[in-house]
Design goal:
32% of the residues lie in helices and 21% in strands. It has 331 residues and is of the alpha/beta class. The strands form two sheets. It has a seven-stranded mixed sheet, with helices on both faces.
């Protein structure tokens, strides 16, 4: 069984084996702890000079890594919880994202920032957020968010070797999950939008056109299997588009699959207001307004803090039942 976590670990191991310019920086990365979610476990023993544990200062970690990247190294930063990335916003937005363009791309620059995002584990208001939307629209910043339908280790390798500034989102609930290889009620296809990060297309039917198109990413991919099984029982043909790269947006591919049904639901875990889903809905509406049967619907978290109590957290975050209800409303 290959889990999301094991695939990430293997991707990091292969990178460090084959490229001595790759370094890891972050809090508590050294063995035996190996990081809060154990993604880097074993690497400090194998590469003691290239796995660097740091003080608790996300701004300093990111700033140091930016300097390393300017010198031609390929640093990978781990931010222990995605919520803490707010402490590194200045270094990311005002420095790392601007270097290559400011200097007319006269030098290589590779900086990957990994961080776990999302709720579902009862960690409370400051350890459960999905804050990637804070970085949407920042020029020269790529945002990658693999799902269980992708190969996160390969995504990580491509991000480091491809260069540039990359924010790599890992949803906490995915670490223990087995990567999806297809189930009887799911057909999985791979589409290359040209970015090097494949878009996965999942269907619960063999023939005909879909009745509904679901667009989502990252941790919300966990709902697709059970959701599609339920829809199949009611003879609802559904198709899910799950991009691995959420910025820049694979607009052409998403528009293509949205047009197949004319009924679109966009799902994200971050707060619904002013989010990724709003941008997707805007792009689809601009391109397909004559062909949409109904307006694009968006699903996201309630615009409030995320509680620690599990039953209250469940009421704030998107749920399987809530997604299913919206789909039937759209139909």
């Amino acid at each position: 069984m290959v889990t999301f976590l094991k695939d990430l670990q293997q991707g990091l191991l292969e990178l460090m084996e084959h490229d001595e310019q790759v370094y890891l920086l972050g809090e508590d990365l050294l063995d035996p702890y190996g990081g809060a979610y154990k993604v880097t476990q074993g690497l400090s023993t194998t590469f003691p000079e290239r796995v660097l544990t740091t003080p608790i200062s996300e701004a300093a970690i990111t700033g140091i890594a930016s300097g390393m990247a300017l010198r031609g190294l390929k640093p990978i930063v781990e931010i222990m919880f995605g919520d803490f990335i707010t402490l590194a916003v200045d270094q990311i937005v005002n420095y790392a994202a601007k270097f290559q363009s400011m200097y007319n791309e006269r030098f290589p620059f590779s900086l990957l920032i990994r961080t776990p995002m999302g709720g579902g584990r009862g960690y409370g208001p400051t350890h459960s957020q999905s804050l990637e939307k804070l970085f949407l629209g920042i020029p020269h910043l790529q945002i990658i968010a693999p799902s269980i339908f992708h190969e996160p280790g390969r995504f990580l390798q491509h991000a480091v070797l491809g260069g540039g500034l990359v924010l790599f989102i890992e949803h906490k609930l995915l670490y223990a999950e087995e990567l999806a290889q297809g189930k009887p009620h799911m057909i999985i296809e791979t589409v290359d939008p040209g970015s090097g990060y494949p878009l996965k297309v999942v269907r619960n039917y063999d023939q005909g056109a879909p009745d509904i198109t679901l667009i989502t990413y990252g941790g919300q991919s966990l709902h697709v299997e059970e959701l599609f099984a339920r829809l199949a029982q009611e003879e609802v043909r559904a198709i899910a588009c799950i991009p691995g790269c959420i910025q820049p947006l694979p607009a052409h591919a998403l528009t293509k699959y949205a047009a197949m049904s004319g009924r679109v639901v966009v799902l994200e875990e971050g707060m619904r207001s002013f989010g990724w889903g709003a941008e997707v809905a805007s792009v689809i509406t601009e391109n397909l307004w004559r062909d949409l049967a109904v307006p694009v619907r968006r699903i996201g978290a309630v615009d409030t803090i995320i509680p620690a109590a599990r039953h209250l957290e469940a009421a704030v975050l998107p749920s399987l039942e809530g997604i299913e209800r919206v789909i039937y409303e759209v139909l």
